[in-house]
Amino acid sequence: MAEYDGDDKQTIMDVKKFNKDMQKWMPFLNEERTSGDSKTNSFFNSWFLYLEQLILIVQESNSNDELQARMKETKCVTMGSYDFYRERRMVRMMNSNNG
């Protein structure tokens, strides 16, 4: 789950709300990760990235399999922020804690 070590009250409340919401979504996300459409068909819908976002993902990948895995990390999960980098960071935090 997400952690915050600062003392900003609004951010603390946001992190607590995020963690509470994610508890409801984790079973669905884990099921999707292991056997959902994104597991069986990498390109099951349209998806667009800015060039700098794509370059970031490619630079962090050392193989084709790793590139595909990194591409899937934020493909369908949205937290409503419309911020690719924030959502990607949150998904990667969840993945590092849960598998």
Element order: H for helix, E for strand: HHHHH
Low-confidence stretches: none
Largest sheet: none
Indicate the mean pLDDT.
77
Strand content: under 5%
Specify Rg, calculated over alpha carbons: 15 Å
Number of extended strands? 0
End-to-end CA span: 12 Å
Shape: globular
Class derived from helix and strand content: mainly alpha
Give the helix level as a range of percent: 55-70%
Report the total helices: 5
Notes on the structure:
By secondary structure, this protein is mainly α. It has 5 helices and no strands. It has helices at about 10-35, 35-40, 50-60, 65-75, 85-99. The longest helix is centred in the first third of the chain and has 27 residues, at about 10-35.
Write the layout of secondary structure elements.
Blueprint: H1 9-35, H2 37-40, H3 51-59, H4 64-73, H5 84-98
Quick recap of the structure?
By secondary structure, the chain is mainly α. It has five helices and no strands. The chain has helices at residues 9-35, 37-40, 51-59, 64-73, 84-98.
